[in-house]
Amino acid sequence: MEKKKVVIALGGNALGKDIEEQKKAVAKTAKVIVDLAEQGLDIIVTHGNGPQVGMIQNAMDNLVVAGETDKQIPLPTSVAMSQGYIGIDLQNAIKYELHNRKIDGKVSTILTQVEVDPKDEAFQNPTKPIGRFLTKEEAEKNEANGVACMEDAGRGYRVVVASPMPMRIRELETIKTLVNAGHIVITCGGGGIPVVSDEDGRLVGTNAVIDKDNASSLLAAKIGADYLVILTAVEKVAINWGKEDQKWLSDITVEQAEEYIAQEQFAKGSMLPKVEAAIRFARSAPGRRTLITLLDKASDGIAGKTGTVIHS
Ligand SMILES: Nc1ncnc2c1ncn2[C@@H]1O[C@H](COP(=O)(O)OP(=O)(O)O)[C@@H](O)[C@H]1O
Ligand SMILES: NC(=O)OP(=O)(O)O
After folding, report:
1. Domain tally, the chain
2. What catalytic reaction does the record list (predicted)?
């Protein structure tokens, strides 16, 4: 019997806030991933890069400020860098966990390019938070210098960049080949390196950060996954989030999810893209389900004991 395929999308807390924290965080994340692999599931891992890509851009911009170069690093190049350094830590942590459990598993990280539509309206309306949280004063200073900022789900202000919808995963065939060969595959890091096709069919990076949950939903649909698991900083999705009458959701249909979206129950740039990604995945074929929960609760969630499941 064919093994069930699960796409696991890792949020910020699975990676830690800086390079030191990342080393520790991925060790814990790797245990969760290998637990699921041991249940006989084919695992494809994706991850975010919001804090990391902001940090890289900042570091690169500081080189310009320091006069060490006059060339700014394009955002898609920073996305590629984030895929590399997050991917290698994840890959090595999963490999080590497999080794500790005496499992002879294969793990690969794929630098993944994701095509977007250059006419996507998102290029005119930046919504993707990147980098660290800022104070209101820092955000206002950025705005005055032409750097868009936005309040992020009640947690502070952050720089925001364009986040077009992912259209096509260019390395899809490579991903399928490696999954079919039994690899745990790390792909679509940071939503994928955003590219557009030029007139000669060349792929050219474009200034954006694709939402990793949207990219994960597209990937899950295209590789025929059974389950999309979005691991984040909350055990369940809520309505009336942060209010006195907050209510956790365990199991909702896509129609109920759409009603809640219409009521603006989910914050833009954080929970909203997750729920929208889940809806698109559920609609891509019958029986497809998305679980949203905490990293530590992934196994319990897959066993139906916790988390929020969104289905047709
Ligand atoms: N309705 C909601 N229910 C639960 N969490 C919500 C809701 N609206 C906003 N959030 C926030 O969204 C966060 C998850 O989004 P985010 O931090 O962007 O995810 P990621 O883990 O992918 O980095 C939660 O930790 C919570 O603070
Ligand atoms: N690219 C992306 O969606 O990153 P986060 O999940 O860290 O926001």
Report:
1. 1
2. hydrogencarbonate + NH4(+) + ATP = carbamoyl phosphate + ADP + H2O + H(+)
